[in-house]
Every structure is written in C-alpha cells, then in structure tokens.
Write the structure tokens for this entry.
Amino acid sequence: MATGYCVKCKASREIADPKAITMKNGRPATEGRCPVCGTRIFKIGAPESGTPPGPGEAPAGGRP
Ligand SMILES: [Zn+2]
C-alpha cells in the first residue's frame, strides 16, 4: 500500500485511489487522495516499485 504525506493533515496517509503517473522528467510517481480529508497526495516513485527514489527526492506541489 502506497503512502504519502498529506499537507492538510500534516501526516503520512495511505494513498487512496493511487494512480501511477509519469512526471515530466520521465520518473514514475504516484498520485492519489488522502482517505481522511480527500486532499490530493503526490508521491515520487511507482506504486509497486521497490526502488528508492534516490537522494534527489523533493516534495511535489511546491512549484508551479
Ligand atoms: Zn489529509
């Protein structure tokens, strides 16, 4: 089960309705919703991938 950080709850939540997406730079990411408040959660890395995102991981959503 993929988890991500909910900025509204300020806590880690399971990602509800997770979807595998690909970012502009070609890296996999997971997008879904917070099961508590419904806020969108975005996590770098594929849902079922065991590969760590690496040292360059950055929280998404801070840039336009
Ligand atoms: Zn939340």
Remarks:
- The mean pLDDT is 82.
